[in-house]
Amino acid sequence: METSTRHLSRRQLASVYRRKQSKYYQQEGYRYALNVSNAFLLERIFAFALDTCVMFLPIALWEFCMLLMFVGVIPVILLNGLEWATLIALAISMFTFNPLLSAKSGGQTLGKYFYDLKVVKKNHKEASHVTLIAREIFGFTIPALLLFIFFNIIGVIAFWILNFLFLLIHPYHISIIDLFLNTRIVVLRTKTKQRVRETTQKPQPETVKNTIDLHMHSNFSDDGSYNVEDLFQMAAKRGLKTISICDHNSVKANLSARRMSELYHIEYVNGVELDCRYQDVHLRVLGYYINASTEIYNHLENESLKHEKNVSLRRVEAFRRYTGIRVDVDALLTKNRYQNISGEMIAQQVLANPSYRDHPMLAQYHYGEKRENSVYHMNQDFFVKGAPCYVEVHHPKLEDILDVIQLTGGVAVLSKPSALLEQEGLLEEIIAKGIAGIEVFTPYHDDQEMAKLLKFAKEHQLFITAGSDFHGQMKPDHHLGETNCPPAAEKLVKQFLDAHRKPITE
Fold first, then answer.
1. Are residues 187 and 59 in the same domain?
2. Domain identity same for 156 and 31
3. How many domains in the chain?
4. Backbone phi, then psi, for 29, in 5-degree steps?
């Protein structure tokens, strides 16, 4: 039973409050704490200045007494006594106030309290009382006192200027003593994530409400989060009228999607997203209006799964060699119907393992600006093409995949083609192999890329599609129905639907 606070003294209440604050930080608060980046430099400087003023407050009182003495309020005979009293007060202030306050509050002096800063260990866990007291005394009090004795006030000013310059230069804006004690200054407020986002990202345009989304993934994709009915429920809530589920190398979602289409009154287009290659370029082709019951798709999926498992084991080994971190392969393959270990899965397991929280190669995903969407950032940094743990996957030829789509009555659309615009003539070569359309509207394309692709589609008489590439947790920035398609441009996507809409054989 909780003890009532009604009969506690102020001192006891303060102790209870500090313990609650410390418990909160240990259990949850450290997850939201960030190193002091440039976005919070001003708060760090003000906190530093306020703590310095607190330390030398007796000197300010001495100056005030001298002024009173000058105007005759205090007799001159008290000068000698005031001088000694000031020195004693200064010693007490320097050796007790900031050190004890920091220890009692768990790393917050007066300045840090006002600006929501806190002294912690390098791994963002709470520092011990001894460390906090040592930081204040050996980092500030003793150097200032010795310099004052040997060099008078000039030495003290020089020391503070040196400390201030170091604070400005260091990427996390720590003090010199923090290097020796392995401590850090962190920002505590939960709104820090929003502040960092505002300073590091460009303003995003207002979300456009779309009614057609022809590219999303269910949990029949190895990186999809939701089942088929979940997707239809979300689509209905967002007011979508036409959707297509295009899972990676799998058509299994289409059968149940046809039933859900009738239940939720949403038009459904059979779909699949197939990996392939043209020369040495990895491509993904969307197959729409396919006959999903054709056996050839089961063969393609089985071959893909077999190949992906081999690649997965090589990916894990590449990660171990590069980082020294061992991945629990058995845990990732248990109840994993795809037997596929993706970069995202490795990132999830490693970042959730407390044994690796202090690993230097993972610090930015735990404490830095990449801590938001850390799984996504880690996958991009380690496992995509060009990254140190990337493993080449050998996919079927483009021509073979186009033959499969054509033989099953489908229409081939090139997924996310903007990257191909950079290589002159490449997109034209690929289109000439039998591509009927291109995915123009997608969150991956900016306004300039969409304009170029629209022009390209018009010149080559290609159909235009729109898709969010919604996956769920693995791509948290992609939202169902947000295809980047202006409402006025949806008529271009409807032209594709009108031209191919037909009864679909299961």
1. yes
2. yes
3. 2
4. -60, -35
Q: CA angle at residue 484 from 482 to 490, to 5 degrees?
A: 95
Instruction: Convert 360-376 to b/e letters by CB count within 10 Å (16 or more is b).
Output: eebbbbbbbbbbeebbb
CATH number at residue 429: 3.20.20.140
Which residue type is seen at 93?
S
Tell me which of 4-13, 102-111, 158-167, 421-430 is least confident.
Answer: 4-13
In a domain, residue 300? The reply is no
Parallel, antiparallel or unpaired: strands 411-414 and 437-441: parallel
Q: How many other C-beta atoms can be found within 10 angstroms of the C-beta atom of residue 426? A: 16
Sign of the CA dihedral with 43 first, then 46, 51, and 54 last: negative
Non-local (6+) Cβ contacts of 361 within 8 A are 323
Encoded amino acid at 136, one letter: E
Q: What is the pLDDT of residues 377-408, one digit of tens each?
A: 899 999 988 899 999 878 899 999 999 999 99
Please tell me the distance from the alpha carbon of residue 240 to that of residue 229, in angstroms, as a whole number: 14
pLDDT tens digits, residue range 321-340? 999 999 999 888 876 767 78
155, 258: one domain: no
Q: What is the pLDDT of residue 114?
A: 83
Q: Of the candidates 221, 271, 193, which has an alpha carbon nearest to the alpha carbon of residue 478?
A: 221
| Nearest C-alpha neighbor of 47 from the set 135, 124, 137, 118 | 118
Residue ranges making up the domain that contains 472: 212-294+408-500
Distance, C-alpha 117 to centroid of its chain: 22
CB atoms within 10 A of CB 447: 10
- Are 262 and 118 part of one and the same domain? no
Q: How many CB atoms lie within 10 A of CB 289?
A: 19
- Is this structure's pTM higher than 0.70? no
DSSP 160: H
> Distance between CA 111 and CA 108 in Å, rounded?
8
